Amino acid sequence: MLTPAVELFQKLQSLRRYDSHNNMTVELSNISKALREYESAISAYTRITKFKHLFNALELVANKDGKKRESEVFDLHVANLSSVQQTDVEEWRELYNRTKHADRNSADIETYLSGIKHIGSKYLLPLRRCYQDIILSLL
């Protein structure tokens, strides 16, 4: 019987992520990109950079089929793929949007500041677990 780590490694090898990308399906391409984002998150130095890479990885695996789910549709889809509450996914998405777009009003600033304050305890670990649950179910 194989250990979980060996089994996971064999599944990752079977993806052939580093082979020519010319014949790659959209699904395999998105999974491969998600794995690269996850690797970047693990090696990132700042919490906000880790968060951004993890959220990008989550978006890629949730939209692996090539559909561009956004807003509440995305939140619901991720909640259905994992054991995470839709409201948690919405919070992650809103914080991610605040990290990449200019603030429009005081509510945006509050979302950003609150998110940054609690990024380690409230966002990073649950987001990482959610991504891992989804990616492992795909492999």
Task: Provide key terms for this protein.
mainly alpha, 7 helices, 139 residues, single chain
Describe this structure in words.
The protein is an all-alpha fold and 139 residues long. The chain has one domain (34-136). It contains 7 helices and no strands.
Q: What is the string of SSEs from the N terminus onward?
A: HHHHHHH
Using only CA atoms, what is the Rg?
Answer: 16 Å
Output the number of helix runs.
7
Global mean pLDDT: 84
- The low-pLDDT segments are none
- Outline type: globular
For the terminal residues, how far apart are their CA atoms? 18 Å
> How many β-strand stretches?
0
Give the arrangement of secondary structure elements.
Layout: H1 4-15, H2 26-43, H3 47-62, H4 71-81, H5 86-100, H6 106-117, H7 119-138
Helix pairs in contact: 2-3, 3-5, 3-7, 4-5, 5-6, 6-7
Quick structural gist:
The protein contains seven helices and no strands.
